């Protein structure tokens, strides 16, 4: 090991540079700009650990904290853990950070909403004024929007306090959505002197991880704050412009930084084997020519690109690819059953299809207000199945009476304290509960796989658990009741939500089991976007534009099997960003997650063209590209 140390520590000075920026007596701002696997997150944690030792007590005495803004909840938890839960740090996602700053400013939020809603209504009204047919779909939708926004505007005086619960099912007039929370916070930081004083005083240092994808409004507001408070405030950005994959991140973040900012950079990639670093360097070359070097002791590693037709049996192809990788790498863990291969799909529904919960997932995913909670598991209606029914049935099947009783006791309506007190005969209540529980579990008798609807109806009949409000009209077969329940809701089409639930409830319960597995750490699947910041020994990147149904990315265009549209051509001629640029960055993120070996599987209408282009780009060698079909068994 020793002989490599000098080389491997070549970027160590960066941590010192950053640490010196955090000196409370002479704060400086910085942007650490470095490629994948170069240790940006590691630097963040290292520097803060040093900060804790030297300035931690000083900050705590002054009731000040270093704010660290992370991109995901998972990153937030990881950093909190690595900083030993120390009180000198306030680690949070951008949304909770923002909400914490503004949540108590009810009258300011009202004023902001009043101006914003009035502006939005006026804009929609102008568009509506130009409509030739007020009965067409767009005009009807516009009229509905004007109406609901006006209702919201008129209800502002009655709001006592705003709430922010982006994942809840029941949005009401006093709730703010994701983008409002960010927009309001950015506006307050940029324009309210008192807010600037409060932020700079509470958080004299704000560090932003994955800053290239952090909402540009908020980044701009933090830049403005830094400019105004430069003597007492330090802003530190960690990021990589090549890894900007969300459209709301700030473009060219590394350009036009104030001259006094420190801009350290790193050249070593500590994560990946040499061949993988070569590949990501090549992908990057056409963008900014940032070349990384591997750790000398790293192995060569294996990269392979497999191409198949879109109509191929994908399960078969992907399992064949794993087998071929096992041989090429001499690594038996390259097997889809090993749980040791990370499969990177483009959209969640590709995982839903492969893991067997597509019919449950798809209708709910189409609903904006359900989507987030579906993806992060926080939706309370889905939680009814995943957090009550699933563990209950598992306990029943395992013969674990203790756990089963515990679940029933914590969630059952029948065993509520007041019910037991009211009851003349508590033992009868207990019997009733047991019977309800037995009847529910009987739905799984003889290996049956009941539909979610059967489960809901069974529970509705027995009263064992409270039925989630969103399902109530379906459970009771009383569709009209949902209308009155949610009549007051803002901009929510209750009908479509209800239809989505109706479709989702038709599926067998096993889809909940697979869905839960996808959400849990146990899943082999992740999206190209969602694995940002993470790393895996063996990675299989799966590419199929048609299956992904996305419009922001086009691997077919990147690999030259689909013509550029006139719009792409125009953007290209004008030097503007195209879908190809975005896709290249996404490809860079996905490939750079691999530590040891990497397989890419692309489904295309034209495998031969893809192969020729890959060789032409020089990203892969002939021996690394293989056209594969499902007739080879
Ligand atoms: N100086 C170092 N010595 C040894 N290992 C390191 C060093 N720096 C980083 N690593 C390791 O390299 C891997 C990548 O580090 P890290 O996740 O911090 O990189 P990153 O720049 O944040 O990556 P990305 O932008 O791709 O998410 C991790 O396993 C980390 O522990």
Folded structure, characterized:
- It is built from 29 helices and 14 strands.
- It has 633 residues and is of the alpha/beta class.
- Helix 14 (358-365) packs antiparallel against helix 23.
- The longest helix is centred in the N-terminal third of the chain and has 24 residues, at 106-129.
- The chain is globular.
- The structure holds adenosine-5'-triphosphate (ATP).
- The site of adenosine-5'-triphosphate (ATP) has 15 residues, from helix 3.
- Lateral strand order in the biggest sheet: 3-2-4-5-1-6
Helix content: 40-55%
How would you classify the helix and strand content by structural class?
A: alpha/beta
Q: Give the uncertain stretches in residue-range form.
A: 1-5, 478-493
How would you sum up the major sheet? 6 strands, parallel
Oligomer: single chain
- What is the overall number of helices? 29
Which radius of gyration do the C-alpha atoms yield? 27 Å
Overall spatial form: globular
- Average pLDDT across residues? 89
Question: In whole angstroms, how far apart are the ends?
Answer: 45 Å
Q: Which molecules other than protein and nucleic acid are bound?
A: adenosine-5'-triphosphate
Strand content: 5-15%
Keywords: ATP-binding, Helicase, Hydrolase, Nucleotide-binding
Protein name: DNA 3'-5' helicase II
Domain UvrD-like helicase ATP-binding: 13-286
GO biological process, one term: recombinational repair
